[in-house]
Amino acid sequence: MAGVRFDPVGPLRGAITPPPDKSISHRAALFGAMSDVPVTIHNYLIADDTLSTLDALRSLGAGVDQQAEGLVIRGVGLHQAIEATGGSLYVGNAGTLLRLLPGWLAGQGRGFWTLDGDQSIQRRPVDRIVEPLRAMGARIEARDDRLTPLTVHGSQLHGAEHVLPVASAQVKSCLLIAGMLADGETTITEPSRSRDHTERILRRARVPFERFGATVKVREVDELELEDLTVPGDPSSAAFLIAAACVVPSSRLLVEGVGLNWTRTGFLRIAARMGAVIVGELEEPPQTEAEVPESEPIGDLDVAAAALEGTVVEPEEIPLAIDELPLVALLGACAEGETIVRGAEELRWKESDRIAGVVEGLAGLGVDIEATDDGFAVRGGTIRGGVIDSRGDHRLAMLGAIAGLASSEGVVVEGMDAATVSYPSFAEDLATLVA
Ligand code: S3P
Asked: Which end of the chain is more exposed for a tag (fewer CB within 10 A), N or C?
């Protein structure tokens, strides 16, 4: 496919509703499939990643029907319920599906399934779920013990205490799901908090579950009590439009119906610290270490362009802004002074090596940026423009597009079609704001 060109523009103006949240859509479908009664999902994301989840769940025996009130999932139940007790499951580009689904499969007590995906999936590590699942009694094989294809055999699981080396919502969620099927108690401790969508669904589904700070504990449960789930607009997709409004002078943008869960709004806090004007009712972290809300907060954000200054993003902020760090680099490129991101080694294991992709990609557009061992450092100036390769990574494709709007000569994005993984209408939505 030929490259897609994004030219410098005048101010962004108008209102936009971002696409439904990808993380929550994956979870909603999966929990729907684990339920005994039909679950209606309002505002499910229709994009490549979340369609892969629906395909996998259909292969496992769940019914999926788009109805007027929402996407209805007719689940099979939690335990030993999956009809197809063998076969291949193709996860496409979906890392969340790859990491969460094995938690359910491993506790089925019978059957085996082999998971594999596209080229990007084949370089993404799965040892982070394989090792802790094995500690619970799971039988799993993986290429070189750390990569796909991944074969999961159903077994009786036992509760275990896990201390994760890296904060990861995917790993935590996988183990929480396995913990619902395991005898005894399963606890998971992360080095710092990561997104908590799975915990909120567990609360809602009346699963015996507790939190204390960065530790969560779950006990075996027979069935889920879920009827419906509502998916907010995706703050990670919205972040591209918000970043555009921050870096294109005189922009003013209203983002409507976006998820404001505090474990997802780290980028907004970083951008505000850099001088961005972002007004909205962001959720505050809970008052007590034990509190877990049942629902996802949804609201609007009013964003206006303003002068930006460099900042240092510290390791504890990383999990709460992990998917938006490429945009911190872009804001840094348009800010006064230096912006440094530390403790972000995990970026190397995303849909692409995002440290290399961001640094080489933006440097190719004339940005003064360099990679560090655990992130990057960028000095503000002008973005000249040129050509950027998405490397098949949806977030790098959209980064290139926004860089083009803020550049002096325009940017051609090679592999723009990657955006369909999370935000199929990205280019159209952007066009409505720059018209
Ligand atoms: C996700 C968690 C994050 C994030 C990914 C989606 C999730 O990954 O980068 O895009 O839905 O749980 P990690 O858990 O690997 O940090």
From this structure: N
Q: Kindly list the distances between the CA atom of residue 258 and the CA atoms of 254, 286, 287, 408, in Å, as whole numbers in the listed order.
A: 10, 19, 23, 31
User: What is the extent of the structural domain holding 238?
Assistant: 4-20+233-432
**What is the distance in A from the centroid of ligand 1 to the CA of 13?**
31
Do 190 and 243 lie in one domain? The reply is no
With tokens 């496919």, the residue in question is: 1
- For residue range 116-126, what is the model confidence (pLDDT) as tens digits? 999 999 999 99
Tell how far the Cα of 394 is from the centroid of ligand 1, in angstroms: 14
pLDDT tens-place string over residues 401-424: 999 999 999 999 999 999 999 999
CA atoms within 13 A on the CB side of 402: 33
Q: From atom 11 of ligand 1, which residue's Cα is the shortest distance away?
A: 23
Residues enclosing ligand 1, CB less than 6 A?
A: 23, 96, 168-170, 173, 195, 322-323, 346
Alpha-helical (H) ranges within 81-188 are 95-105, 127-135, 169-181
Whether 145 is catalytic:
no
The whole model's pTM is what?
A: 0.98
The letter for the amino acid at 50 is T
Distance from C-alpha of 156 to C-alpha of 55, rounded to nearest angstrom: 26
State which of 172, 202, 230 marks the end of a domain.
230
Length of the chain: 435
Amino acid at 172: K
Ligand 1 centroid to Cα of residue 351, in Å, is 10
Nearest atom within ligand 1 for CA of residue 350: 9
The rounded distance, in Å, linking the Cα atoms of 254 and 377 is: 30
